C-alpha cells in the first residue's frame, strides 16, 4: 500500500471541509439564516475559549458571545472575504470583550468592596494556569489566548488585532515570561 495514500485522503477531506465552509459563508452573507447558524455552531468552541481567556466570569463570557453573534448576524453582509469568517467573528468577540472590560473598570460594585475573592465555578482543568493567565494585562492575555488556544499564527493575530507581527511575537514572549514567573511563585508557595 502506498504510504502517501492516507495523507492524500486527509488533504482531500480538508479541501472538502474548506469548500463547505466557504459555501456556508457565502450563503450566510446572502442572508441564509440556516447557513449563519451552522457557521456559529462550528465556531462556538472557539468563541468560548477566546472569551473565557479574556473575561473572568462565566456570565460575562456568555454575554460577550451573545452580543458577538448578534453583531455578526447584523453585519454579515459587510464581510468581504468569505475565507476570513472565523477571523472576522473572533475580532468582533475581542472588541465585545474589550468593551465589557472597559465598562466593568468604570463600575465599582459596592457589595464586592469588602470581599477578598468572588467564587465561581470554572470547568478548566488547570486552574493555576488560568489564574496566571488572568494576571496578565489584556494585551498580553489576548495574544496568548489566540496563539495557544486558537492556534492562530503570529501573522494571523497581527492582522486580526491590527498590530505588527513583531509586536505579537514580543507580547507572546513577555506573556510566556510572566506566566512562567507566576507559576513558579505559585509552586514555591505550595
Automatic annotation (TrEMBL):
Q: Which GO terms describe its biological process?
A: DNA-templated transcription initiation
- Would you say which domain of life the source belongs to? Bacteria
Establish whether keyword Transmembrane helix is in the entry. Answer: no
Q: Does the keyword Phosphoprotein apply?
A: no
Q: What region holds the RNA polymerase sigma-70 region domain?
A: 39-107
A GO molecular function assigned to this protein is: sigma factor activity
> Tell me, what's a Pfam family for it?
Sigma70_r2
Q: Write down the SUPFAM superfamilies for this protein, in alphabetical order.
A: Sigma2 domain of RNA polymerase sigma factors, Sigma3 and sigma4 domains of RNA polymerase sigma factors
Family statement drawn from the similarity comment of this UniProt entry: Belongs to the sigma-70 factor family. ECF subfamily.
Name of the protein this chain belongs to: RNA polymerase sigma-70 factor, ECF subfamily
User: What species is this protein from?
Assistant: Terribacillus halophilus
